[in-house]
């Protein structure tokens, strides 16, 4: 099963292929030979520069072109008219991916780049603010609009409801202070536009048709105006006029926590429609960014996909969504389940409410699927006056797609302490529970995602170890029980780099050489909250000894006592954690009564351990400062 976009692209490529054949003088598919197939793919894959020379060769474009030709060959039996010769085997039977070189390209580095923090932070802040703060108010106004439109459709009367009906309505408005309704600036040539009024008529911007519907008739006729003008103008002077939706808007806290403001200024019907669209796009962005679903998987979410939340511990809940995996699965996809954060769960709930109260279970949630157009519309609104009034930060330019969001989530998970256990997203401290969902099912798309995370984790470890080695070269030594072994490794690597520089100084790329020499040790690195764990020998891991699992293949980082473990090291980046631990323990000691000696002794030991770690870190930094002074 393929999307409409994929089918359209294949049709466009087929048209290109037929046009190219016509340009070559061919009028029948039976005239096509292997030469024509290869020549067309070469023509499509090469891009020429301004000088007429080949500037680029796209394996992906070649694969698309080959796929169209191969498809015509595979289904030649279905053609009753023109078709390929029976003995024609395009590209000698090679597949589109293999013959074009695209399979090797796909097997390499991921081309989809994660979002930059400059785009990701304001984007997620805006999306969550819209869903968590504005959604209840938008949904309330959208429901009011539905009810109002339904009531208007039920009105069948076209006659004058009587002067008394208008006067009662106007009197009610004066008593309650309810403004008259402004006519939408987008309204064109309606019944009201035909009402004869002067250019400076004070009633020119008032929606008299809306007033007429409130009085029980479908339209306001121009001949009624003379009889009602004085009362209308008097009411307008007393209560004014404004757009019909969002009146008396509730106060909400600004996104930048700089006070409270009304959640919106009065809205016309079209403006409310746009606002509902922005909310729908925000739901799709939240699900894609925080659950890591593909575009096709977002499209499979339906009303009722939220499973009942499970309280795993007091105050701790687990949220699940049911959906389908489409990519790489049999026709129709397979049922799958996603463990998500509370924010994703709430976004789906809002998306269901956007469909209205009559949406039956199983109705597709089209809202969570977004495209570049809907995202750009949301971004324009966020960067506009209405959202800036709410304290939202502008979103810079940058492509935002489900693939980019999925890739960003992978990086967020892999580059956090604990790797696959994840920690938190940087905005509002969201816990990344989605990792459990990716690890829950063996094989398939989730296994590929898990492999990508592992790869990113290795890249992160290499970067960290290279930075630690550069610190060593500047004289900033590691500290902690495992520092001696790490310093010996760096000394050995530094010596080998000197030897290589003497043997072939013109060939040595020091960065590549450092990565190559440190790669094996980088694979043993595990990030702790206040230390680096170099898990070389499980028998030496203090956490495994304490847990009674000496044969485990990963450390129990949450149980790490880095002040005693022989494979743990401390570095300047860990100093704030140790300082916070010391200060917290001191606060607790000060709050203890005299009788709680056992607790006091334990906390004093914790303070002493933190001070010892801080002293070692500071001593290493002081050594580097002394070296620079010399």
Please describe what this structure looks like:
With 630 residues, the protein is mainly alpha-helical. The chain is 52% helix and 8% strand. The chain contains 22 helices and 14 strands. The protein has a 3-stranded antiparallel β-sheet with strand order 7-8-9. The chain has a 3-stranded antiparallel β-sheet with strand order 12-13-14, with no helix packed on it. Strands 1-2 form a two-stranded antiparallel ribbon. Helix 1 crosses helix 3 and helix 2 runs antiparallel to helix 3. The N and C termini lie far apart (70 Å).
Q: What is the helical fraction, as a range of percent?
A: 40-55%
Number of helices: 22
Tell me, what's the shape? Answer: flat
Distance between the termini: 70 Å
Poorly predicted runs: 104-109, 188-197, 418-446, 626-630
The average pLDDT score comes to 81
Report the biggest beta sheet as strand number plus sense, adding barrel if it closes: 3 strands, antiparallel
Strand content: 5-15%
Instruction: Walk across the major sheet and give the strand order.
Output: 7-8-9
Q: In terms of structural class, how would the helical and strand content be classed? A: mainly alpha
What is the count of β-strands?
14
Radius of gyration, CA atoms, in whole angstroms: 34 Å
Ordered list of secondary-structure elements with their pairings:
Layout (H helix, E strand, L loop, with lengths): L3 H20 L10 H12 E3 L5 E4 L1 H16 L21 H5 L1 H5 L10 H38 L8 H14 L3 E2 L26 H7 L10 H15 L1 E2 L8 E3 L6 E3 L6 H23 L3 H4 L11 E4 L2 E10 L8 E7 L1 H13 L17 H11 L2 H5 L12 H13 L9 E2 L4 E2 L2 H7 L3 H30 L9 H21 L6 H13 L2 E3 L4 E3 L7 H6 L20 E2 L5 H17 L5 H33 L1
Parallel strand pairs: 3-4
Antiparallel strand pairs: 1-2, 5-6, 7-8, 8-9, 10-11, 12-13, 13-14
Helix pairs in contact: 1-3, 2-3, 6-10, 6-12, 7-9, 10-12, 10-13, 10-15, 15-17, 16-17, 17-19, 21-22
């Amino acid at each position: 099963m393929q999307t409409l976009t994929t089918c359209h692209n294949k049709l466009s490529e087929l048209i290109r292929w037929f046009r190219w054949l016509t340009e070559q003088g061919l009028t029948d598919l039976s005239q096509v030979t292997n030469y024509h197939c290869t020549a067309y793919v070469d023509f499509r894959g090469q891009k020429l520069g301004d000088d007429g020379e080949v500037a680029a060769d796209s394996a992906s474009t070649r694969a698309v072109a080959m796929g169209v030709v191969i498809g015509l060959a595979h289904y030649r039996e279905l053609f009753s008219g023109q078709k390929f010769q029976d003995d024609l085997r395009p590209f000698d039977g090679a597949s589109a991916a293999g013959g074009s070189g695209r399979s090797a390209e796909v097997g390499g580095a991921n081309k989809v780049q994660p979002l930059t923090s400059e785009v990701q932070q304001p984007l997620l802040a805006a999306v969550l603010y819209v869903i968590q703060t504005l959604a209840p108010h938008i949904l309330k106004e959208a429901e009011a609009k539905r009810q109002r439109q339904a009531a208007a459709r039920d009105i069948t009367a076209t006659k004058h409801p009587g002067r008394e009906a208008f006067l009662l309505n106007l009197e009610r408005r004066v008593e309650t202070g309810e403004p008259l309704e402004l006519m939408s600036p987008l309204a064109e040539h309606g019944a009201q536009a035909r009402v004869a009024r002067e250019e400076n008529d004070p009633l020119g911007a008032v929606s008299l048709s809306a007033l007429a519907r409130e009085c029980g008739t479908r339209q306001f006729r121009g001949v009624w105006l003379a009889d009602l003008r004085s009362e209308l103008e008097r009411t307008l002077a007393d209560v004014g006029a404004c757009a019909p939706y969002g009146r008396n808007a509730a106060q909400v806290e600004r996104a930048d926590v700089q006070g409270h403001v009304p959640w919106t200024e009065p809205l016309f019907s079209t403006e409310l429609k746009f606002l509902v669209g922005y909310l729908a796009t925000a739901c799709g962005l939240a699900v894609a960014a925080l659950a890591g679903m593909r575009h096709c998987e977002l499209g499979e979410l339906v009303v009722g996909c939220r499973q009942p939340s499970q309280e795993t511990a007091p105050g701790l809940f687990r949220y699940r969504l049911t959906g389908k995996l489409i990519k790489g699965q049999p026709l129709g996809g397979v049922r799958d389940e996603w463990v998500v954060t509370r924010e994703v769960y709430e976004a789906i709930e809002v998306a269901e409410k956007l469909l209205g109260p009559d949406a039956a279970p199983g109705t597709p949630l089209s809202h969570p699927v977004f495209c570049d157009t809907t995202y750009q519309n949301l971004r324009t609104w966020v960067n506009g006056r209405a959202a800036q009034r709410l304290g939202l930060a502008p979103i810079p330019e940058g492509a935002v797609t489900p693939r980019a969001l999925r890739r960003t989530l992978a990086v967020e998970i892999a580059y956090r302490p604990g790797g696959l256990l994840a920690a938190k997203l940087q905005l509002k401290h969201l816990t990344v529970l989605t990792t459990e969902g990716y690890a829950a099912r063996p094989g398939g798309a989730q296994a590929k995602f898990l492999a990508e995370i592992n790869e990113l984790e290795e890249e992160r470890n290499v970067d960290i170890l290279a930075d630690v080695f550069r610190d060593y070269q500047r004289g900033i030594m590691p500290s902690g029980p495992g520092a001696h072994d790490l310093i010996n490794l760096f000394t050995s690597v530094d010596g080998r780099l000197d030897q290589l520089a003497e043997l072939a100084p013109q060939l040595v790329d020091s960065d590549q050489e450092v990565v190559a020499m440190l790669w094996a040790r980088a694979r043993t690195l595990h990030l702790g909250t206040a230390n680096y764990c170099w898990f070389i020998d499980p028998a030496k891991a203090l956490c495994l000894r304490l847990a009674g699992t000496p044969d485990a293949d990963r450390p129990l980082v949450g149980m790490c006592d880095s002040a005693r473990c022989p494979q743990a090291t401390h570095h300047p980046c860990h100093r704030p954690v140790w300082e916070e631990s010391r200060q917290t323990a001191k606060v607790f000691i000060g709050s203890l009564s005299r009788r709680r000696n056992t607790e006091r002794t334990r906390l004093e030991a914790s303070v002493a351990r933190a001070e010892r770690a801080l002293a070692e870190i500071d001593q290493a930094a002081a050594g580097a400062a002394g070296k620079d002074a010399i």
